[in-house]
Structure formats: C-alpha cells, structure tokens
Amino acid sequence: MTAATGAARTAHPERPGRSDGVCSEFTVFTRIKPGEADALREDLATLSDAADDERVHAAVRQIGTLHDARHVIFDDDTRFMFASVFDGSWDTYIDDFAQTVVGARFDKVFSHSEGFPGVADPGAKDWFVAHQAPAGVFVSAYPDLTVQQIYKDQRVDEAFQDVLDTDEFRAALDNPANAELVATPAFQKLLAEASA
Questions:
Q1: 9: confidence class by pLDDT, cuts 50, 70, 90
Q2: pLDDT of the residue at 50
Q3: All residues at 6 or more sequence positions from 27 whose CB lies less than 8 Å from its CB, including other chains
Q4: CA distance to 27, 29, 43, 136, 157, per residue, from 71 (Å)
C-alpha cells in the first residue's frame, strides 16, 4: 500500500493534497454566503439531476482524469465542502474543468461561497489553494490505475465478454487443435478471471 500519512505527500509540491500512486485528492472547504444555503442546495439538486446528462458525462470523459467528486453542505448551512479524486497535475485538473460544461456548473455551485472569483478567473487557482485542506489519510483502491486505464479496461472487458458469449468461441475452446493453448496456465487464468 502506498497511502500517504503524516506529512503531506504530493506529486505536485506546489499544491496541497495527498497522492496515492497516480491518484490525488482535492478537498476544498468554503464559507457559504449568508442566506444562500438553500440556493446552493437547489443548485446541487440540479447538478445531481443532471448527473445522467450526456453533456456532463461527455465532459467528464473529455477531462479524463476525474475518478469521483462529492459536494457537502455542513455546519448548520454555513460551510460547503467539495472533494474529488483525480489523476495528474492539479493545475491541469483545474484548467480542464474551466474549459468544459462542468466549469459553468462549478461556477454556479461555488458562486454561493464567499470570495469565489469564478473558475475562469486568473485568481481561481489561488482561491482554491487558500481553501484547500489535504486529507489526513488518503488511500486509493486502485492507486496504479488512471481513469483512462479504467476506461480502457472496461472497454476490453466488454469486448472480451462479447467474444466469450459467441458460439464460435465455445467451438474454438472445444476444438482439439486448440487444446494445448486452452490448457496453458495463462489461458486458464484468463477464463477464470472472465467468469469471476
């Protein structure tokens, strides 16, 4: 396990946050503008309703580095937390959000936080750093897999499962000419993993 504890360990020392393998965490705590918690809650509900929106999923795929994200209102509607896990450079991560449909949604949600300049503002990164707090412990279940590798693994698995379901594959397995290949430990492992 490569989880960081103690002093913050990061692949990008100029930015706070912990890393575990290729994954980094990003957690921001802000103060909600007085009287705007309900408006923030409504914007979050809209964002949640849009979770199935093809444009949002397409933008997240285009960014290609976001593992997950969550938004939380707490302390009697006075504070807000955004937390996510991403691959690569912190600066690139922020830049990528500003350049997609997700950036507009970020602006809408964070507009309820005191002092937020807007995600496209040159001071946005400094604002995020000022409100960012590294996790005490950060552990990734798959520290060596980037989002892009996970997408690829999913595509390969879906294609392989399609092959496994064909009559031609079953016939190839039963063909005596392939018996030596089918009996190899590597092929048996592949079949076992596919059926797990």
A1: very low
A2: 59
A3: 17, 81, 82, 83, 84, 132, 133, 134, 135
A4: 10, 10, 11, 19, 31
